[in-house]
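Help wanted!
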Amino acid sequence: MNAALNTLKRAVFGLSLLGLAFQVSAQTQVDDAWVRGTVANQSASGAFMTLTADSDSKLLSVASPVARDVQIHEMTMKNDVMSMGPVKSVDLPAGKAVKFDPNGYHVMLMGLTGPLKEGDSVPLTLTVENAKGEKEVLEVKAPVRALTNMEGHDHSKMH
Amino acid sequence: MTALLTRRKVLAGMGVLGLGLLAGCDTRGQLSYKYGKDLSDKILGRTFKLKDTDGNTVSLSSYRGLMPMIFFGFTQCPAVCPTTLARAAKIKKLMGKDGDRLQVIFITLDPERDTPEILDAYVKAFDPSFVALYGTLEETKATAKEFDVFFEKVPAGDTYTISHTATSYVYDSRGELRLGLSTSLSAQECTEDLLTVMEVC
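Answered by r_m:
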């Protein structure tokens, strides 16, 4: 029983080392990336994800072949008025998971080259810069989820 | 002859009013909502005229007998518009059979980019019963003003995005404004308040 557990522990440790090896060049982790689907002729949509940098960094820009222009926007709600607009960069404090979701920051894909269908995969290229001014380029494949999904609404509820 | 017709119209009007009273539609301002904002003291949305995606000119009275829930937005909105429409679709399901009387109406604040084709495909992706309305930029401005809805273009690169009021406005089946639902409410919370409106009218 114990031996089995130890073997398992060793295996997990080994795997985590392997994980570390892959992470050496990438200081920023991207989780749960997805893009909202569109209907025909809709020319913009949003991309969402969670970014975690291992040292104080900032997300400088995002590019994608599916859109003519990709911008980072911030959405805020005040008195039920939704305000939106582009931001120059987004701070990624060391070790903190920064969410890009329908309640705050998001990546705007503008001037779409075609409709985004559920199940498609959208390549995103993220440029992150750390405090030393070193740039890191991350390639992400974000799956397209249904236009109608409620991600970021029910999950934002605290009860 | 003309006078007679007018008298008939008046009588008919009184009859309709009487029916309304009998049906218990006279409790303006007396309903208590658990989550939404009571808007029954406000007069909003009485005179707007816009087009639906089939090109028909419609006003609030076009939806008499149904419970209209009106939301303003634009299809290039990545966050609050789709989540609010998805919530509306969920509300309709949660309401069960009563959901057949809920008429979700999406009014575009971006008539320059939201063509009737895009609007129709967009709202119907959420629920086939949802309708989208549009007007000229002037009509859109006038409608927003009538609802006290704020909206403003925000430059974004060589294009723009739109900041706007995200409240859903709920009318009873006689076209009386009842309720304002904030985007922070869940589908379940909205459903409870909508059923309260339905109990009276």
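OP: Thanks! One thing I noticed: Confidence is low (pLDDT under 50) at residues 19-24, 155-159 of chain A.
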